[in-house]
Amino acid sequence: MFPYLGLQDHFTFPGPDEVDPSGIVAAGGNLSPGMLLSAYRQGIFPWFNPGEDILWWNPDPRFVLFPEDLHVSKSMERLLRRETYRIRFDTSFAEVISACAEQYRPDQGGTWITEEMQKAYIELHNLGFAHSAEAWEGEQLVGGLYGVSLGALFCGESMFFRRPNASKAAFITLVRELVSRGVELIDSQLYTPHLESLGAVEIPRQEYLRRLEELLKKPDLPCNWSSWL
């Protein structure tokens, strides 16, 4: 049985020279807070199907957004100005991650956000490292995303929407708020056309790891973001 790792514990993953060509670094372990944070601090994230061993990834290339390159269309700017959706942070994390798990994705047969994953990231949220951005229409949650914040880096994990452009509104608002608070890079991990349309690009893994080392030297953001907006 792999031990539970707390916040003070560290696990060293294989280095970039030992990564499988597919991007897989290791298999097994668990999703305890120390294990997850050790992974993110080494440029690694979990991604696996239900019933499989936990797979840990460090892909090459890496898909990232430099905040200064965020692309917002004129139609999205109008939607944001009209305040079609009210954006909040960290008010319904569990509901956001559950909605991300339920989101239909035509290129996937099911969800990788298992119950085990949800419990692990809810625990990470309660510890102040995982955060949600939410788009609300009245009292209905209609879009959003969640991710992990470390130093001057935000690692986006997943998004969902129930109304047109709701997840985009939450994402754009989050990126702009993070920039104002010193965040320098948004890690989107793997390519998606949706995030490419917002300005994300692929960079070599070595460049990502070099930047990561510097970003982690910056102070962590506050544990709760619900008062930001």
Task: Describe the model.
The structure is a single chain. The chain has 229 residues and is an alpha+beta fold. The chain contains seven helices and ten strands. The chain has helices at residues 33-41, 74-82, 93-102, 115-126, 166-180, 193-196, 205-215; strands at residues 24-27, 45-46, 55-57, 62-65, 86-89, 130-137, 140-150, 153-161, 185-189, 201-203. It has a seven-stranded mixed beta sheet, with helices on both faces. A hairpin with a 2-residue loop joins strand 6 and strand 7. Helix 3 (93-102) runs antiparallel to helix 4 (115-126). It starts with 23 loop residues before the first strand and ends in a 14-residue tail after the last helix. The mean pLDDT is 95.
Please summarize what this structure is.
This protein is α+β, with helices and mostly antiparallel strands and 229 residues long.
